Amino acid sequence: MVLGMIRSRWHVPVQITASVLAVVGYFLAHKHKGRQFAPNVHQSFAPWLMFILLGQVVAGVYLKLHIERGFLGKIRNVIVLAHGISGKALPVAAWVQMLFGAITALGFCQGDHLGQCLAHFIMGSAFIGYGIMLTLLLLVGQGWIRRSGRSQEFFDSLVIAAWGCVNTFTEHRWGSAWAHNDIQHTTMGVVWWCAGLVGVWLSRRRNGSPKRNIIPAMVILLTGYAMSGHPQTLMISTMVHRVFGYTLMGAGAARLIEISFVLKDKATLSEDGSNPNSFQHLPPFLLYASGFLFMGATEEQMQLLSDAGIDHISYLLMLYSIAFLLYLFVNMLLYLYAVNSEPASVKLDPEHGHQNGHLTNGHVRPHHERARDAEEFELEGLTSEDEDDAADSEPLVKKERRGE
């Protein structure tokens, strides 16, 4: 995806290699004689993923041919749009398919475990996605934020409010008795949409200009506090949930410190946003870690670890290691995009501030500079004429002296 966005010459070879590997893997999954699985969600989602991949390849071949006449030429803009959307959706679909594969291989999320399993993987993926969005906005998204005319917290609060509305009405099975966890999850949804509305309101000044606020950071901090005291049946599950809550609280506190004390309510430290403070990497990374911790804290996973005798410290360190690797991968992709999408640096004339030294590049020079240049040109012409006259008269003087 990134290679395509920067129009790299490696885009097509990498795309072809990945497509060939995907097709080979698809057929190997159906032709092997090893472990067999009953119909499952991983198997059901695979054809849709292959359909997206096939459409992406066909659109890429069409665009590579540069057909600009006839019917195919008229729909070129539509194909370009569809190719871009499918290319950006493919990583998300691949992430979902990888989760489905892990769940299917371990036999998780069956029967009564389905509800809490969905909650953990959806919310965990949401935390990771939020961390990736913060990384995007931190490293390459400041220009988009300025063009939108909104503060970053406006979009954060809007999503928080919408998500809170969904949680308020979906965390309890209506018509059945209220359980302790149902009350906690529902009240958490209420807090989310209430705080989200406040964040949207505070995201603009009286004159309509964007303004930073700490409401999304407070929501993350409160959510972490609630999760740190979530009741569990197993000791290892209690410890994992507690560390997950502390990590989420750390992300919220770090975000609050970043906005209030590092940025001091500014959008960014540098004008172009290309040189963030080192502390600004902490909030998104902690969101990555929170997502992996929450996805790795389902009932079946905790029971499996307890039966295997694995302590929570080793498990938590492994999840943090995965978070570090994903954060490295995202930063590498964003670096690749940034260095290849920015215009080449141009040297400026230190005296006039023009590009390419003394050339004006279309700039109108001030009147006094033009007058000075004209005077210098005239003086240079007079000086050169006097020198030429002196050079022409010198041989004559020498000849007269010889004649004497």
TrEMBL record:
<feature type="transmembrane region" description="Helical">
    <location>
        <begin position="45"/>
        <end position="65"/>
    </location>
</feature>
<keyword id="KW-0812">Transmembrane</keyword>
<feature type="transmembrane region" description="Helical">
    <location>
        <begin position="317"/>
        <end position="338"/>
    </location>
</feature>
<feature type="compositionally biased region" description="Basic and acidic residues">
    <location>
        <begin position="395"/>
        <end position="404"/>
    </location>
</feature>
<feature type="domain" description="DUF2427">
    <location>
        <begin position="1"/>
        <end position="66"/>
    </location>
</feature>
<feature type="compositionally biased region" description="Acidic residues">
    <location>
        <begin position="375"/>
        <end position="392"/>
    </location>
</feature>
<feature type="transmembrane region" description="Helical">
    <location>
        <begin position="118"/>
        <end position="141"/>
    </location>
</feature>
<keyword id="KW-0472">Membrane</keyword>
<feature type="transmembrane region" description="Helical">
    <location>
        <begin position="77"/>
        <end position="98"/>
    </location>
</feature>
<dbReference type="InterPro" id="IPR018825">
    <property type="entry name" value="DUF2427"/>
</dbReference>
<dbReference type="Pfam" id="PF10348">
    <property type="entry name" value="DUF2427"/>
</dbReference>
<keyword id="KW-1133">Transmembrane helix</keyword>
<dbReference type="Pfam" id="PF10355">
    <property type="entry name" value="Ytp1"/>
</dbReference>
<feature type="transmembrane region" description="Helical">
    <location>
        <begin position="214"/>
        <end position="231"/>
    </location>
</feature>
<protein>
    <recommendedName>
        <fullName>Integral membrane protein</fullName>
    </recommendedName>
</protein>
<feature type="region of interest" description="Disordered">
    <location>
        <begin position="348"/>
        <end position="404"/>
    </location>
</feature>
<feature type="domain" description="Protein YTP1-like C-terminal">
    <location>
        <begin position="94"/>
        <end position="337"/>
    </location>
</feature>
<feature type="transmembrane region" description="Helical">
    <location>
        <begin position="12"/>
        <end position="29"/>
    </location>
</feature>
<dbReference type="InterPro" id="IPR018827">
    <property type="entry name" value="YTP1_C"/>
</dbReference>
